[in-house]
Amino acid sequence: MNRRDFLATTTLAAAGLAAAQLPARAAAAPLLDAKGKRIKLGMDNFAVRASGWKGRELVDYAAGLKLDTLFITDLPGLGSLETSAAGELRKYAADKGVEIQLGTWSICPTSTVFKKDWGTAEEHLALGIRLAKAVGSDIFRAVLGTREDRKTPGGIEARIADTVKVLKSQRSLAVDSGIKVTIENHAGDMTATELISLMEAAGRDYVGANMDSGNALWTLEDPTDSLEKLGPYAASTSLRDGTVWETPKGCKVQWTAHGDGTACDLKAYFARYAQLCPGIPVNIETIGGFVVDFPYLEPSFWDVFPKKPASEFAKFVAVAKRGKPIEQYNGNDKERQKAELEKSVRFLRDEIGLGTK
User: Fold this and answer.
1) Averaged pLDDT of the chain
2) Does the first or last residue of the chain, that is N or C, have fewer Cβ atoms within 10 Å of its Cβ?
3) DSSP helix/strand/coil, 253
4) Phi first, then psi: what are they for 239, rounded to 5°?
5) Higher local confidence (pLDDT), 10 or 263
6) CA nearest 102: which of 73, 129, 127?
7) CA–CA separation, 17 vs 1, rounded Å?
8) What pairing do the DSSP bridges indicate for beta strands 207-211 and 234-237?
């Protein structure tokens, strides 16, 4: 060994010894909710939609990540629509220590995205409730529609009324089955206040909120403000981080993995979540890669938000002012989807203290 190699070797060895002597970075202490319980951590299967996994494949992936819950938010994700098969999946998941929650898409018959794949809206909801019971889910998530429904005749109020009718038609089935139907603030369809009006009209005894922090940005809401409003109603969640930044016409919104966004202080968010949502799992629904424009400086933009409170919008503008543009990429790449979900799992487990495993 020559002198240069000797010096290089001893330098690396010294660096390694110094690193070994540094204390390991401690993970966050477990975050306890208002009832003194650890908060369950799980995943929404839409986060890894490009993988095409169903049923046991999803359970195996969730178990491999040591998650507490698996939120299957589309009926085909079960792998079968037979209640007997759902019961078998429940047993399979339980053996692996994973709790399943179940959901579906639009149950509003006049929504622009309503599909008749499962019959009428009433039949669709009834099927979902039966499958939820069979698979061991205490909730069944559904949605009204998307932000396009704000432009339909009668506006979002008319679509809310139509959804309430469908919910009321299956009240007895939901109550008798012990299932709470949770409605999401989905893809810019309803603000937190509008979703609350839906739940109050349908009946809080069997209807709750599926709270989506990322979707709050699509209705020009500060996610923390949305949490304050929806938290007391929440019975399930699909959460992600995001970034908002100002543009000459208004702003742009891009969703991110947890820890990569600027939309809110996540430590403060989950500390408040722990108080408002005891017993409600945190399910991660990362959706990244693309940007959506919100040209709120154009007068015509406000045609679909005629009742937006100035104080609520001011909080959102504050969110936009602290953000900067970030990388755009192919959000449909299955490896990128898994990487973003797993990054969120690590962040929420190590930095926030979520999860029971």
Assistant:
1) 94
2) N
3) strand
4) -115, 145
5) 263
6) 73
7) 21
8) parallel
Give the residue among 298, 282, 337, 293 at the shortest CA–CA distance from 46. Answer: 337
Percentage of the chain beyond pLDDT 90 is 92
Q: Which two tokens stand for residue 343?
A: 């990054």
- CA-nearest of 232, 341, 240, 243 to 292 is 243
**The pLDDT value given to residue 17:** 38
Banded pLDDT at 27 (limits 50, 70, 90):
confident
Q: What is the pLDDT of residue 9?
A: 40
Q: Give the list of residues 6+ apart from residue 261 with CB closer than 8 angstroms, or none.
A: 241, 242, 243, 255
Number of alpha carbons in the 13 Å side-chain half-sphere of residue 282: 34
pLDDT tens, 285-338? 999 999 999 999 999 999 999 999 999 999 999 999 999 999 999 999 999 999
Residue 92, helix vs strand vs coil: helix
Domains of the chain: 36-240+264-287+335-352 (3.20.20.150)
The span from the first CA to the last CA of the chain, in angstroms, equals 49
What distance in Å separates the CA atoms of residue 276 and residue 268, rounded to the nearest whole number? 12
Instruction: Supply the DSSP string of 271-338, one letter for each residue.
Output: HHHHHHSTT--EEE----S-EEEE-TTSGGGGGG-TT--HHHHHHHHHHHHT--------TT-HHHHH
pLDDT of residue 306: 95
- Residue 34 in contact with residue 60, Cβ under 8 Å? no
Amino acid at 303: D
Does the structure show a pLDDT above 60 at 3? no
Question: Residue 266: CA atoms inside 13 Å, Cβ hemisphere, count?
Answer: 25
Q: Are 195 and 159 in contact (CB under 8 A)?
A: no
CB distance 74 to 130 below 8 Å: no
Burial 52-63 (b: 16+ CB within 10 A, else e): ebbbeebbbbbb
